[in-house]
Amino acid sequence: QFDTTLPRFDLMAQLERAPGGLRMNELSRRLMVTGGNVTTITDQLEREALVERVEVPGDRRAYLVRLTAKGRRQFNAMALAHEAWIVQAFHGLSEAEARQLHALLGKVKQLQQETV
Question: Would residue 1 count as lying in a domain?
Answer without folding.
Answer: no
